[in-house]
Records
---
Amino acid sequence: MGAVSFDASVRGPAAARSRRTAPARATRSATPAGAQTLDRGLQMLELLARPEHASGLTVTEVADRLGVGRTIVYRLLSTLESHGLVSRTSEGRLVIGLGVARFSTALLPRLRTAALPSLRELAETVGATAHLTIVDGDQAVAVAVVEPSWTSFHVAYRVGSRHELSRGAAGKAILRGRRGEHGAVATDGELEPGAHGVAAPLVGVTPIEGSVGVVSLNRLTLAEVEPHVLVAARRIAAALR
């Protein structure tokens, strides 16, 4: 970073003008075009990462909030989208992409470390495959899965499995949490014929949107399974705060 020097021999009004104007010159030189583009890109990511914008923003909305033109937003979007940092929903709204996880190698391991003990207890108690699912764009992605050890058969639900938020217990629970609603949701056969799910939203873990649930080939009774799922969701949320 360049230094700004002053002539110690200058006195009077000229010196005052030098002192007033020199910092402005230094500020301009410290913010080249490349740095400004980076700053705007980071502002855009921070904007989209806010919980109140979980359902996404349009290009016009992003431009208005950043105080820039739509053309600039499209330029930023082109780069951020190519790296998976921003995604577009089926309606064309801009949302944070799961690619942001690459900037913190500890993020997904931390999620799994926080979730696995509670998921293991949930799977063993209910006798069903337990999972932690988070949002990626308009899809739900499983990031931690534990299968029960004592059942004769169970659902093989893989880490990385994804589906639309509008289908399946995990996605619908996330949408329920987005609306500020609590409690678990149950679904039957929405993702796979014969598969039954119960899930509850992960609450109070800003900026992560997620859900905790179970999936089974046996029919699950919401009244019986919900208390166990809610306990697991609360414990995982507490571990992530």
---
Amino acid sequence: MKNLLIKKDEILRGLSKVSKTIGTNAATKGICIQCDGNGNVILTSHNNKMQTFSKIKGEGPATAFLVDGRTFSSLITKAADMGFDDFKLEVIDSTLEIKAGEMLVTKLSLLDIETFINFDMEKETKATIKVQGEPLQEAIYKTTFAVAVSDERPILQAIHCEIAKEQKLFCMTALDGYRISHKEFLIDDFQGDEDVTINIPGNHLGFISSELEGEIVIQVGEKIVSIATGDTIYKVLLIEGNYIEYRKMFPTEYETNVNVNLKEFLKAVNVCGVICDSKKKLVKLTIKDETMTVSATNEKGNTDINLKIKQVGKDIEICFNIKYIEDIKYFDSEEVILNLSGPELPAIIMPADNTPQMYFILPVRQ
């Protein structure tokens, strides 16, 4: 094979994407490097659950080979730090020879490319959806925190995505048994016959989120979702199974509605976080006469912070775990609305500016 020539900036850009999904076992530890002979090079890696494709520029003949991902990535990164700008890659028998300038010559044993697995989309894609990166990124940020950490119920480790064709509406939901976070945004285009409902692993969406910019193209298959951003494509295995019918968990009537300044509420909650009992971790909200008292106590003392509110309905005392009430930080509005049905029933928190976002939280008994 003749030399495959890749500039430093190009190969570093590609490796920055694919090195994050290199696996640890024999079948997933490689980076596949493919050149089409027309100036395009594709770097690919996977960890059995997610695969990354990164397209970069490179000159050379059509070829494909598999190299140990971590070793190759580390070698190129360190060589780039030494000031080398061009890398020449040449396959000689079962060895990859890497040249940089006149000083660096390294030989790496190639892996068997036949062992490399590609996440092929099914022949028929159920839907192709186009969205902008910013609202998708925001929705991921405002839902992934509520994904379950435990793997006892894998479906709860997913972000539940509902995409409506006619309304051009994308709904993302996460829940862990104590709280539900829900965010909606509009999409640009939907190509497909019917609405789509899929469960994408929350940790993978969180990983992809920082890379999203510009127009994002999402292709939905039966078991795989493909998310393309710029010159990078992520293919993720979906979580199978039926998601919790979360809408049935929402109260249908409320006894008390409260409008409160978000910044002041969050400051009060943070202060209570210092004082609240380390075991129970309770924060109490006492709502009475247009005032909400946010309070906490432990063996060393107590704190009470009074906030002016707009109140409609009954007076109420209700307690929450400090960990979950702190999640109001994921709202951006000036004020939030607390919809309360009773001291032992779920609370619904929403932005007062009608932004399509909702947070459901279970109270704790005192």
---
Amino acid sequence: MKARILDTQTLVYSEPDLNSQAITQVYAGQEVELGNVKKKGEMKWVKAKLATSGQEGYLRGDSRVFIIRLVSLLQNNAKVFNAPSMSSFPKTELKKNDKFYMLEVVKEEDKSWVKIRDLKGAEGFIEGNTKIKKLPIINKNTGKKNMLYGALWFVGGLVVTVGTLSAASGGGTYIIAWGALLFGGIQFVQGLIQYVGSKD
């Protein structure tokens, strides 16, 4: 999952160990791709890949980050400002159901603001009380889970169908588990599309 660094600066280590080499450092506002969490001794570490250079290493588990989430607008509209201030010039306006990324929450003039990025890459700020809906995180793991559950539903429906059909071969009724077959097939295909289409 993608995240934005909140600490003023923090080191990226080559291994999940404070005694390992610090390969670089990242600063507030930089974006990283977070991977698996590892625990070494009493300390947690997170695998990280820098968005700009592609360098990979480990961040301390206590590093402050903001998870970048895809969201959609629930209210009818929302103004997008150049800066986190009501005196700033509104650069555009979002419409209901528009999708965009939440990058960071900031506080200016005793008011909360959300830094956002639209799907075309343009950034700006919306008021912190704007009504939004967080959308599900879709990545390769999500795709694999949907493929697995879809396959289980499909195979289960197939077993019921074939089993009852065999039992009724000499006459009698049998069940075609259309629901399980259809639902399982759809979920498997959705999972496959998510897995192939995801970069995470």
